[in-house]
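Sequence and structure are no longer studied apart. As an example, we show below a sequence and the tokens encoding its fold:
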Amino acid sequence: MFERFSLNLCVATMFVAAIAWHVSSSIAAEKSKPQWKAGVARVVITPEGSMWMAGYAGRDKPSEGKIHDLNAKALAVEDAEGNRLVIVTLDLIGVPRVMREWLEKEVGRQYKLPPEALLINASHTHCGPELRGNKTYVPADRFKQCIEYREALQKKLLDLVDRALGDLKPASLGYTHARAGFAMNRRTPTEKGVRNHPYPDGPVDHDVPVLEVKDPDGKLRAVLFGYACHSTTLGFYQFCGDYSGFATRYLEEAHPGMTALFMAGCGGDQNPYPRGKLELCQQHGRALANGVEAAFQTYERPLAGPLRMALDDAVLEFAAPPGREQLEKEAKSKNKYERRHAEILLAELKDKGKIHTTYPCPLQVVRFGKDLTLIALGGETVIAYSLRLKSELAPRAVWVAGYSNDVFGYLPSLRVLNEGGYEGGGATRYGSHPGPFAPSVEKLVMDKLHELLKKTQTPKSKEGKS
């Protein structure tokens, strides 16, 4: 009797052990199974002919050749739940809102991609073509060419997204970061106000965030990296991606078969120093590429899902616009930029009966589970936003990008606005906005961002802060 009981107990124990082994093996297999799919694509977007170039370099003639090609690249990722995100990076001055809206509509219609799942970021190179039709430094006879380039580009970007989504394959994602030191604050305080000049005591963010995309066998397939600095090393008449264009090339040369994508950070008040020569641009590109290579040697944080995304506008308020009498006076100014700016506002006043007093700034939040929070802001965002968000959301891994989805002009913090200067409102004479933002600008941005952060919390999250 006892021997039979012992035998049955032994069999039962073996049966339970077998079940436990099967369950643990299934769990282990599930954990080792890639939780992501990723796809990449690229397209050359260098203009075929000569064009007026973008940026404040004071050019008086169109482009004359190229240093290297400009590119648009796309990284598509899909989590285990089927949520998809497409990040498009451009070697261009900015993202016109009309282009964002067109592409958003088309990818939604053709690929069922919701607006919050599309992120477009521009490197802000000042050695690319001008594709915006509202810049006062562009001669009137060149506007049509700018619009034609943009409309052709839109179709290329739609095909780019299509190919990235069609390239989705099992992959793993990991986050890491390092540093690069050539960015310096450019808002030097003087007795006559803030001057655009290297300011070593001003705030900076030298972080180089890196998203690694690997095949199941561990081979590096793509890398998305960022840096907070203006792409203004150069200001000549040849097309060039500036330092980020060289950085992506150096990385792709070092890792054959890999696609490198650059996403500009909050570099609105940061410049690369020293600057002005091609060899300096190449040096900065090498320094940034070395920052990415250094990040590869740190401990990588594996990213788990799910993807949680949100996109909305913060409706920003402008300070009181100038009156008709003031605009008519400025329309006679000897300064061609001031004169053209006044003409644009007078035309708006005539056509609409008033000058616009608000602007919708797009803000986007993408959470990779609890492992990484990516925040993308529209406009030429100053460094204060990156530093504030990282401080408020610490100790999380936070990646903050500017120049995303609509580069409408400068997005100043309250401090920068109060100090004035180029980023605080002076640059508006080169576009179609009436003047500087109202003091509510930073609060409106941060309130909306925290709303989006709360919206993207994963269900049953036990995290303390949004």
The CA atoms of residues 20 and 26 lie 10 Å apart. Confidence is low (pLDDT under 50) at residues 14-31, 461-466. The longest helix spans residues 2-32.
